Amino acid sequence: MAAVLVAGGVIVLVAALAYGRQAAREAYDRLLVGAASDIAESITVRDGEALVDMPISAFELLALAPDDRISYRVVGPDGQTLTGYDDAPLPTEKGDVVFYDGVFGAEPARYVGVVRRFAERNFSGTVEIIVGQTLRARRELARDIAQNALIALGAAGAIMALFAWLVMRSALIPLPRIGSALRQRDPTDLTPIDLSAPSEVAALVQSLNGFMARLDRQMTSNRNLIGDAAHQLRTPVAAIRAQAQLAAEEPDGEQRAQMVARIHDRAVSLSHLLDQMLNHAMIIHRADTAPRDLVDLRDIAVEAFEAFEESAQGRSNEVALDIPDGPVMVRGDIMSLTEAAKNLLGNALHHGQPPVRIGVRNGARAILWVHDEGAGPPSEIMADPGARFAGDRSKGSGGLGLAIAHAVAASHAGWMSFSATADGFEAALDLPRDG
């Protein structure tokens, strides 16, 4: 701020000096023109000769600069000096009124040349009147004008600097308070900063709160992943280990084969649970990091359909695809949307009743839906679809399918919807359209 004020002061100083010199020059140039015009009006022609009767008014005008020396010269048509100083310089340019700089002795001076034309029977031609003046009064007037201007501008600048300092001080006061609040926080406290601040600083506070909210989501996801792994994986791993030990000690081959089959089933279930846990953590992470592109929901439905088609047919479950002819565009993360669609379809295959259909609807919003002929999940699950490890997990489900779909919908500014139909139940991702 000081640098701006200093630079502005230098500019104002230069402008004030230039304005003072220009104003003084114009004022005293008018005096020179007035004096030269008075002399020109006093010239008369008598007996074919130009006579100059120097008027007192011309000298009264020039006397307004009492400390300056004056010079004048009247030159006839033949170039001869009619009166005045022969060494007064003539203008190099032609014109009725010409201003030019010169010297008067050892001092710089300002001159004006005024031309009067005569066209009489016994006298014709131009008479040139030269009037000059040294520059002392001009300099004094320029200094006074610049000084007065600088005093006024300096006072205004001081007032502006005071107000600017008060405004900046008021605007920056919240910054130390924000820094102090952050320093005093517990490292795990990522709640929003609640401090009043001017609009210039409020944007910084909002950005900090947004950053801490994203960081809190990532840390919560990490904590959930660690806690879920410790809680959900310990029991199936212990069961697999115990059954493997029993199988190793079982002498009966038929009993051992049954134990190995149970170990395989538990391993598959554990693998599915681990995949869902990692996918859920990945979805939470990608919500804040993955770039968003234009995506056709029909492509998402087709990919989910193809991923389950073979396995569904192998279990005598019919999976049908129902998509419109035109594109249904949303802006989102392809990987996250695909995982959500796969989990919705997987839930319908594990818990619903065949036939199962997956499709897309285009309207005011973009809808990706999965329909089966079952009754749908219990009401407590529909009330909180984001709950992890909810519902019946006896069929190999990890209990995270709806939680993953709910997280994807929320990260795309949408939501999950459930509806009972005449022939079954529908779960859907309701997303805003883009295009």
UniProtKB/TrEMBL annotation:
Segments crossing the lipid bilayer: 149-168
Domain Histidine kinase: 228-435
Main location as per UniProt: membrane
Domain HAMP, residue spans: 169-220
SUPFAM superfamilies from the UniProt entry: ATPase domain of HSP90 chaperone/DNA topoisomerase II/histidine kinase (SSF55874), Homodimeric domain of signal transducing histidine kinase (SSF47384)
Keyword tRNA processing: no
Name the record gives this protein: histidine kinase
